[in-house]
Each structure stands twice: as C-alpha cells, then as structure tokens.
Amino acid sequence: MKGNMAKILRKFSTTTVDPGEIKRFSQFNEQWWDKFGPMRPLHSMNKLRVPMIREGLANTGSLTSDNRQNLKPLAGLSLLDVGCGGGILSEPLARLGGCITGLDANESIIDHAQKHSMKQGLNISYSAGCIEDFAKNNKEKFDAIVASEIIEHVTQKEEFLKACLECLKPNGSIFITTINKTTPANFVAIFLAEDVVQLVPKGTHEFEKFIEPHKLQRILEDCKDNLYTDG
C-alpha cells in the first residue's frame, strides 16, 4: 500500500491535485457507503444537491417537457461528476437517467466506486485521474459538469475550473457546491464538525482552501474569457 501511495503522490505532484488530500481520503476507502460514518454529511447533502441539479437543468431548458414528468428526467444528458469520490452523488444522478461519468484522482476510491455501482446495477463510467488530463481528450463532451464539495480540496483553483469548463458543451451548465470562506463557516465546518462533534475526521478541511462565492464567480468568468480567447 505504501508503494502504491508513493506512486500516486508522485503522479499528481504537478497538477491541481493536492497529494495530501489523496493520502487523507484514502483512509476512508471502506467507509464511503456507510451513511453513519465519516461520509455522512455528503449522503445527507444529496437531499439538496440532487434537486438543485435537476431543477437547474430544467431552468436552462436542458430537460424536455416529457422528461420533466417521468422518473428519469436526466435521460439523454451526459454529466461529469468531478471529484466523485465513492460515487455518493454519481449514483442518484444515474438513477435519474443521466449518462454519468465519475472522475476522481484517487485510484483506490474509484475502484470502490466501480464495485459499488455494479452491485447496484448502475451503468456509471468511472475514471481515475486529474481533470486537466481528462479534459485533453474530452473537450465539449458533457451537458453538465458537477463539482460538488471538491474545490475546497483543490490547490490551483483557476486551472481546475478551466479544465472543467473545457469539458462542457457550448451552453452547458456547471454546478459547484463548496464551503464559503467566512469565520462562521470556519467555526462550523472545522471547529464544530471536526474538533467538537467529530462529524467528520479532523483535518478534512483547511480554511485557507475555502473560497468566497464572488471570487469563485470571478474565476469562472475569467476562465470563460480565456477559453474564448484561446479558442
């Protein structure tokens, strides 16, 4: 295991992936689908995340009127779940009919995600790697990009978001959820959740990696401008 971990850390040493994050989340390989374990907050967030994505796509006109009324409203749409982890969000999106690709830099977690989705009878395409490399061969391929609870673990946010946008079809949608960089967020997400209640393992989040919404919006706008210019 130590040898494999060393290879992983070297592989991603020059990308937007933080090797420390890879190492940290590898310890949870067997616990992604324990709804009462360290991933409990992510499971709970699906009650908000899944409707947000479904309604967001409906509001942009990506869903047909027929699809909105049936049990698989995402049928015919391709979605990329960046930083998918064990597939906690990928699986419910697949159940809604979406053609889902899950991408994560942690190979061992992707292996667990694949095995779990197969047991559930879900056809999800999982890939291990960083978004920069993935984007090189998947430009303008997806109707929607989902980057949920991942950007607060990313080192180079501009490069990360630019690569995400490169994978997006023209007029596609990107959905991002993350922790705001505020004192209350620091108190709740780190002090309470990690130190006091121990809802998530200590060290899961680093306040310096949090980002304010207006800064995130500015980065996205800059990335779009650069894409148009480079194109």
From TrEMBL:
Keywords: Methyltransferase, S-adenosyl-L-methionine, Transferase, Ubiquinone biosynthesis. The keyword Ubl conjugation does not apply. Pfam families: Methyltransf_25. GO terms for molecular function: 3-demethylubiquinol 3-O-methyltransferase activity; polyprenyldihydroxybenzoate methyltransferase activity. InterPro entries: Methyltransf_25, SAM-dependent_MTases_sf, UbiG_MeTrfase. Residues 80-172 form the Methyltransferase domain. This is Methyltransferase domain-containing protein. It comes from Brassicogethes aeneus.
